[in-house]
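ok new one. same drill as before - structure tokens go in, u give me an amino acid for every spot. 247 of them this time. try not to just spam alanines like last time pls lmao
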């Protein structure tokens, strides 16, 4: 499937293109840190950062580690991630000295799904794509959150129309608190933080992929496209997998 990426992709970095430290960012940064501190006190071992390894989540991981907050960090390995995404896990562990818990789908469920629907089931229908997401993402996420009372995400209101009302804290529909401490940050502010604190990020962001999921389901975006337009680009859908849809 073809697409038109942004011009200059080979020559520019996301930091060079986007990073702008706004006058409001100092206050937003302090507020985000305070949200993380309060959540850590309120939930203790019941709190986990569920990291997509995208740039927003890397900012939050940096905040957690930089300020020595006792918050567990975990991620999902769907079995279909880009090598560049997976390479961030040892980079985080080396940079911050923090272990990252990795949750993978149940192998037998993946084998049965692929045997029944094929390796490219996600392209056949929205229903099958969501079924693939369920096996590879939702089931391992449920195990990640088992026994937890709260989880932290990198959701931002600017990411898409569907996320324009993301709250700093809300019920996730399963009796847990769902925290999005940088919900009000702009794309420019996220990258300004990355630049100032030298946060490790996925190099695919430099190739105009602001939202990075599984390899078959992610492409670069073109000028003027929504942040999440590169996810399941062949669909006319809300561009969500179910991780952040209230039950």
């Amino acid at each position: 499937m073809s697409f038109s990426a942004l011009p200059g992709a080979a020559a520019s970095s996301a930091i060079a293109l986007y990073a702008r430290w706004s006058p409001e960012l100092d206050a937003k940064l302090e507020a985000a840190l305070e949200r993380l501190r309060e959540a850590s006190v309120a939930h203790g071992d019941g709190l986990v950062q569920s990291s997509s390894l995208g740039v927003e989540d890397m900012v939050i991981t940096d905040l957690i580690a930089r300020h020595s907050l006792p918050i567990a960090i975990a991620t999902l390995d769907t079995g279909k991630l880009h090598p560049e995404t997976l390479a961030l896990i040892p980079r985080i562990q080396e940079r911050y000295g923090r272990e990252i818990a990795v949750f993978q789908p149940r192998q037998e469920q993946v084998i049965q799904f692929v045997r029944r629907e094929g390796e490219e089931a996600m392209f056949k229908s929205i229903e099958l794509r969501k079924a693939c997401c369920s096996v590879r993402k939702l089931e391992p996420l449920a195990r990640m959150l088992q026994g937890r009372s709260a989880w932290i995400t990198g959701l931002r209101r600017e990411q898409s129309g569907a996320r324009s009302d993301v709250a700093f804290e809300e019920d996730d529909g399963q009796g847990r608190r769902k925290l999005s401490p940088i919900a009000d940050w702009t794309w420019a502010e996220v990258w300004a933080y990355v630049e100032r604190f030298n946060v490790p990020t996925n190099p695919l962001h430099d190739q105009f992929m602001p939202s990075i999921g599984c390899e078959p389901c992610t492409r670069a975006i073109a000028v003027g496209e929504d942040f999440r337009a590169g996810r399941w680009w062949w669909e006319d859908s809300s561009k969500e997998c179910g991780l952040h849809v209230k039950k």
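The chain has one domain: 21-208. and btw Helices lie at 14-18, 25-43, 55-66, 83-86, 88-96, 107-117, 126-145, 187-197.
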